[in-house]
Write a structure and sequence with these properties.
Blueprint (H helix, E strand, L loop, with lengths): L2 E8 L1 H5 L3 H10 L3 E9 L2 H7 L9 H8 L3 E10 L1 H9 L12 H5 L8 E3 L3 H11 L7
Antiparallel strand pairs: 1-3, 1-4, 2-3
The structure holds adenosine-5'-triphosphate and magnesium ion.
Adenosine-5'-triphosphate binds next to strand 4.
Length: about 140
């Protein structure tokens, strides 16, 4: 499998509960390299731009309010097959449907408050990495 990068976010629900330390441990144990990391609060506009593919869906307003409701941890992760491996570690979007021991199963509390984000394809990973990090930060 080729080395790949993906954009991960530890969402405000997880950071507010102090779960980011544990999630970072899981990322380390799973063999991901953390290429870049930043902790800060997104503006509503940044969250809207990030989730622009979901504009028009019924949950868009609530989702972008949630994503800008408190600090997040934004990560550029690198590993062989990083995009699919990170999505596997997160589990299904709906925590109720996520596999045992996945992050969303362990820590998610609703389909919206599902504790983590991960890019879903090479094209979205490229867009999302450049949305939050400069070329210099990704060296
Ligand atoms: P993410 O993009 O955050 O990694 P995902 O790719 O598993 O999650 P998407 O379909 O891209 O799922 O949805 C983006 C986010 O929008 C979800 O992670 C969740 O927080 C929220 N969301 C998705 N579907 C719903 C829904 N039906 N109701 C409320 N929120 C939703
Ligand atoms: Mg998605």
């Amino acid at each position: 499998m080729a080395k790949e990068r993906t954009l991960a976010i530890i969402k405000p629900d997880a950071v507010a509960r102090g779960l980011h330390g544990d999630i970072l441990s899981r990322i380390h144990e799973a063999g991901f390299q953390i290429v870049a990391i930043e902790s800060r609060r997104l503006t509503k506009e940044e969250a809207e731009g990030f989730y622009a593919v979901h504009r028009g869906k019924p949950f868009f307003g609530d989702l972008t309010s949630f994503m800008s409701s408190g600090k997040v941890v934004i990560l550029a992760l690198e590993a062989d097959g990083a995009i699919s491996r990170w999505r596997e570690l997160m589990g299904a979007t709906d925590p109720a449907k996520a596999a045992p021991n996945t992050l969303r199963k362990l820590y998610g509390t609703s389909i919206q408050n599902n504790c983590t984000h991960g890019s879903d394809a090479p094209e979205t990973a490229a867009f999302e990495l450049s949305y939050f990090f400069s070329g210099r930060q990704l060296i």
